[in-house]
């Protein structure tokens, strides 16, 4: 479970959210929507403690933002899988080695790595691409590798920050389907996106960022085709 209790968040000393209260239950698929620059990325960063609350506290994966020590943050992040818009793959390593690296740095035994990597790649349909280099893959395939990398440590939560921002509409829907399959395993999946059509395709609980606040919403027909561009929050 994830919970925000009376949280104020700032970015570069500028308020982004005030008195935010939010709960995400085990097994939920949650969309966070809003225009580019509205605070979606800031909210996700606070979940993996890249940004700490100015006030209040965040509870996630058994950790509390008010009491967590800096040396414990890597331990928290081992329980989370994070997917970015720009993939962030190691271009000089194969698909297999991109995933294996995540396990090696956390001390996973060598004999367990191969099975974990291949299972994660199979979950996104890329088991046959294990020895390919990332630059030889399409954008959609690279994002699927990034999802597999997020999944390889069997996280409690997947945080996806504009995971389809660099992809065409058909590929975006494909990526969403893989995230939904992960969610069906009982893993919390939180997707930050400005693509309202993506949310309309597969409705789930949706939060809309407006100003310094966030509230439950449904995507109405009037929002169809609203696809802002530019940097995320």
Automatic annotation (TrEMBL):
It comes from Chlorobium phaeovibrioides. Keywords: ATP-binding, Nucleotide-binding. This is Cell division ATP-binding protein FtsE. The keyword Nucleotide-binding applies. InterPro entries: AAA+_ATPase (IPR003593), ABC_transporter-like_ATP-bd (IPR003439), ABC_transporter-like_CS (IPR017871), ABC_transpr_LolD-like (IPR015854), P-loop_NTPase (IPR027417). Coiled coil: none annotated. Residues 2-233 form the ABC transporter domain. PROSITE patterns: ABC_TRANSPORTER_1, ABC_TRANSPORTER_2. The keyword DNA repair does not apply. SUPFAM superfamilies: P-loop containing nucleoside triphosphate hydrolases. Pfam families: ABC_tran. The lineage of its organism: Bacteria, Pseudomonadati, Chlorobiota, Chlorobiia, Chlorobiales. One of its GO terms (molecular function) is ATP binding. Part of the ABC transporter FtsEX involved in cellular division. Important for assembly or stability of the septal ring. Belongs to the ABC transporter superfamily. GO terms for cellular component: plasma membrane.
């Amino acid at each position: 479970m994830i919970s925000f209790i009376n949280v104020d968040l700032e970015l570069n000393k500028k308020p982004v959210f005030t008195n935010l209260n939010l709960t995400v239950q085990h097994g939920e698929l949650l969309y966070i929507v809003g225009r580019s620059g509205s605070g979606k990325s800031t909210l996700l960063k606070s979940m993996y403690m890249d940004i700490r609350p100015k006030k209040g506290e965040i509870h996630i994966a058994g950790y509390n933002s008010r009491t967590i020590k800096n040396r414990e943050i890597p331990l928290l992040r081992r329980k989370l899988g994070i997917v970015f818009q720009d993939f962030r793959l190691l271009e000089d390593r194969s698909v297999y080695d991109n995933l294996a690296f995540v396990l090696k740095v956390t001390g996973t035994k060598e004999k367990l790595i191969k099975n974990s990597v291949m299972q994660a790649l199979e979950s996104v349909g890329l088991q046959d691409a294990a020895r390919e280099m990332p630059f030889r893959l399409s954008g959609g395939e690279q994002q699927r590798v990034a999802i597999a990398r997020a999944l390889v440590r069997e996280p409690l939560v997947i945080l996806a920050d504009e995971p389809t921002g660099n992809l065409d509409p058909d590929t975006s829907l494909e990526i969403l389907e893989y995230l939904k399959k992960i969610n069906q395993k009982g893993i919390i999946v939180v997707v930050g996106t400005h693509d309202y059509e993506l949310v309309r395709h597969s409705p789930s609980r949706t939060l809309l960022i407006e100003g310094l606040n966030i509230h439950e919403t449904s995507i109405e027909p009037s929002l169809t085709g609203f696809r802002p561009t530019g940097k995320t929050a």
